[in-house]
Amino acid sequence: MANGMDLQPAAVKELLDQIVARTVADTGAHAGAFFLLEPGGEVLVLDASLGMPTGFVGLLRRLRVAAAADGPLAEAILQRHLVWVASGEEFARRYPPLALTFPFVGAVAATPIVAGSHVWGAMLLLFSQKSPAPDARARGRFTTAARCIAVLLQDAAEAGHCLQPDLTVRLLPPTPAHPSAPAHPQAAADFIAALPEGACRLDVRGRITFADHTAAGLLGESVPHLLGARVWEAVPWLAPAPYRLRYQAALASQLPTSYTVKQPRTGRELLLQLYPDRTGVSLRISAPAGAPDSRDELALGTGAAPGLADLDTHYHIMQLSGGLAAAASVDEVVKLVAGHLLVALNAHAFSLLVAEAGRARVVGHHGVSPELVDLVDHAPLASDLSLPGLTTSAPSWGRLAQGMPSFFADRDELRAAFPESASIDDGMGAWAWLPLMASGQYVGVCVVGYRQPRSFTLQERATLAAISALISQALDRARQYDAKHQLAEGLQASLLPRTLLAMHGLEAAARYLPASHGMEVGGDFYDLFRLSDTEAAAVIGDVQGHGVSAAGLMGEVRTAVRAYAVASATSGEVMARTNHLFNDLDPGLLASCLYAHIDPVHHIARLATAGHCPPLLRHPDLHTDILAAPPGLLLGVDPRAEYPTTAIPLPPGALLALYTDGLIETPGTDFETALTDLAAVLSRATGSLDDIADTLLAHAQPSGDRADDTAVLLLKVC
Asked: Per-residue pLDDT averaged across 379-401, rounded?
């Protein structure tokens, strides 16, 4: 290709632009774009655009290439193949976050620009939602164009003129929609002047290329003032985002739309009707006596596409999307859907169901009668059986299980598909059944109900599909989280005593709280067990870290302490033997531990500690001491470490408090201050031992937020 060809950057760009324009025209696309890949291969930069709305150009200026789920361009680059998306619904299912930003997209084609092993960039085509999917001929022209661009860029680079990406996007003039039509300027002008409506023509950037005097008069401006300016600049009261979004939506979707506005100077209602094609938008302006034309495919009112009616709707969709990305439990997902879905979709009822062991379980609903929920909850699933929701009969289970949504514009449509629903009146007039798929697997269904019959437009269906995909992913993550959380809680509970020892002369209370963040099982533990008819042993400890390893090690330490204690060893010997075993296990972790031999008959306790927090002793007069028992080394440091035994008096009414560091570790507070404060709280605490334990926890975590696990064991001599 380089033979006899000027490969200077300007000439290369001119030839690139010609290829892009010809490809858009030959494939039947209404818009196209060419992207260059930045060095490093992580960001695509928009280099040239044809037929793209101004808003799209800004959003597409720089795109990351991190995962195939980021969009068709990223998928084409990463997987080095042509990506075809047949419809807006498929686009929404495959790229849900992107579909919420671009809810007007129909069919999409993306291909990498590859020469040898080098990826130069990518090319994108957009097709109207009302156009059929591109045929094999169109696909062939697209891939041929991509190969030509790749060879052109490779030749230019070898000639020393490598094309570099920058942020100056070339906006290419679109090919006229009817290039062969004869021009009759005066006849056309006479025809337009005879109409009672005003007429304007806007290009793809929103600039007014034509306006008649009727349109100018209705808008309250002069024709010279309008020509050449963007409509929202020439007519400031048309600048609010919802109006500009209408223009962007019409141009991007290639579907006509209409809306009414009030002329602020005259107070007159105007009907604006937009008819797009690949070169821009024809705008018809009139002062209607009635409502907007019901034939509009993208109209406001009950048929409005989600996210287009107003900024409040768009806000709720974005809130729902962001919240679902952070949701950590099924309850959180349900609350988010209840709080934002109905508002975002202008709907009136929803039911969220998951598939469990061959049955459907209702995990959340709003606006659905309790009778219907009871009827469908835990109903068996079969290929020809309905799923729970707003009726007892649902769309084909096979269709839903394949990820295909079903829409019913009115009760007649539902009855025609499912005669069994005739006897059910749920107060709804239209339904959207949205399958919830995650990793190719069916996880449930979201049913959305509307009180009034409605037609679901292409754009509306795409937006619903995108939202259902976001709900699917969030619900799947949340169910996994809940399952792991239940497993962790069960494991933690199995490693702690189910009940506390009850013996004459000794009263006990305990608390265990996991950290607020994360769901792994912790390493804190406590135990209280009988040594004889009149003696007991208490132990509390904290194994370093979290997770199954820490929990398993905690269980072994607890078992070892019990075994050595019942063998009539002293407190120091129990700690020394446990430490020796701990080192033999070589876990790569450390642990703190405190062991107390309690003799309530003789009113004495013998303590040994392996680097654990000092216990608190509240005397009968409510004065509290911080016990300074000689600390030994943490378990796991030295297998030959020794642990001295310290005897302390336990008069009747005395209270011994054992705890882990989660009770005193407070950001911004040093250890000594936190310990002194805890002792003061214990001195003032009143009520039963359970009340006192709750008081200590409330003092340590007044907001309920816990950075670490916390265990408390209180012992009172009666």
From this structure: 46
- How distant, in Å, are the alpha carbons of 346, 507, 508, 691, 694 from that of 688? 53, 10, 10, 5, 10
Nearest to 581 by CA among 567, 598, 599: 567
User: What phi and psi values does residue 158 have, to the nearest 5 degrees?
Assistant: -70, -25
Report DSSP letters for 354-377, one per residue.
Answer: EEETTEEEEEEEES--HHHHHHHT
Contact present, 536 and 503 (Cβ < 8 Å): yes
Q: Which tens digits make up the pLDDT trace of 627-670?
A: 988 889 999 999 999 999 999 999 999 999 999 988 988 766 78
Exposure string of 437-454, with b = 16+ CB inside 10 Å and e = fewer, is bbeeebbbbbbbbbeeeb
Place of tokens 């679109």: 174
Q: How far apart are the first and last CA of the chain?
A: 99
Q: Phi/psi at 372 (nearest 5 deg)?
A: -70, -40
Task: Tell me phi and psi for residue 514, to 5 degrees.
Answer: -75, 165
Instruction: Give 110's strand partners.
Output: 83, 124
| Burial degree of 425 (CB within 10 A; 0-12, 13-18, 19+) | exposed
- Does an H or E element contain 304, and which? none
DSSP letters spanning 170-195: EEEPPPPSSTTSPP-HHHHHHHHHTS
User: What is the chain's percent helix, strand, coil content, to nearest 5?
Assistant: 35, 25, 35
Q: In this structure, which amino acid lies at residue 320?
A: L
Judged by DSSP in three states, 431 sits in strand
Please enumerate in sequence order all residues whose Cβ is within 8 A of that of 356, keeping only pairs 6 or more positions apart, or say none: none
Write the CA distances from 302 to 308, 316, 403, 453, 699, integer angstroms. Answer: 12, 18, 26, 9, 53
Residue 502: strand, helix, or coil: coil
CB 640 within 8 A of CB 689: no
Q: Which of 98, 168, 151 is nearest to 126 (CA)?
A: 98
CB 501 within 8 A of CB 509: no
Closest CA to 646 of 616, 594, 605: 605
| CA 388 – CA 559 distance, rounded (Å) | 49
Of the pLDDT bands very low, low, confident and very high (cuts 50, 70, 90), residue 306 is: very low
Distance from C-alpha of 127 to C-alpha of 252, rounded to nearest angstrom: 9
- pLDDT at residue 638, rounded to an integer: 93
* Burial group, residue 492, by CB count within 10 angstroms (0-12, 13-18, 19+): buried
413 by Cβ neighbours in 10 Å (0-12 / 13-18 / 19+) ranks as: middle
How far is residue 475's CA from residue 160's CA, in Å, rounded to a whole number?
53
| Contact in structure between 351 and 389 (CB atoms under 8 Å) | yes
Task: 262-270: list long-range contacts, CB under 8 Å, 24+ apart.
Answer: 263/218, 263/219, 263/220, 263/237, 264/237, 265/220, 266/220, 268/218, 270/218
Give CA 374 to chain center in angstroms.
30
Q: Specify the pTM.
A: 0.51
The position carrying tokens 């039509």 is: 181
CB 53 within 8 A of CB 252: yes
| Two tokens, residue 179 | 């290039």
Cβ–Cβ under 8 Å, residues 402 and 424: no
